[in-house]
Design goal:
The protein is mostly helical. Helix content is about 85%, strand content about 0%. The relative contact order is 0.16.
Length: about 120
């Protein structure tokens, strides 16, 4: 179960690293605009906000990677903390921005969190 948990944490970290790229660097281009659904003018106007969100997603990814490479008990605790942050952010985003966030971010984080806790 430990290997499965670690793989899931790595996938959630990769997801948040990809979200960082989309929101910080591709927001005004095709991939970012298809994510947001914004026209070019709205994408340009919201790019600073998206970049800020992307930075936060990068911190989540960095924390999860830290949890993967740190020795236990620190690694386990860091993974649990950052996965809880992922779930809370995903639930909040689904309530305030777009319901898809619940399935795209909160659900993978919750599954990885359950696996990490079960592996203990």
């Amino acid at each position: 179960m430990t290997v499965i948990a670690q793989v899931l944490v790595g996938l959630v970290a990769a997801l948040h690293a990809w979200i960082l790229v989309l929101e910080m660097f591709l927001w005004e281009r095709g991939p970012g605009r298809s994510l947001s659904g914004f026209d070019p003018a709205m994408a340009r106007a919201t790019a600073p906000l998206a970049a800020n969100q992307g930075l936060y997603n990068g911190f989540l990814a960095a924390g999860l990677v830290w949890g993967l490479v740190a020795a236990d008990p620190t690694g386990h605790r860091v993974q649990v903390f950052f996965l809880i942050c992922v779930v809370v952010a995903g639930v909040y985003g689904s309530l305030t921005a777009n319901r898809r966030i619940l399935f795209a971010q909160a659900l993978p984080g919750a599954v990885a969190l359950a696996a990490v806790l079960a592996a203990r």
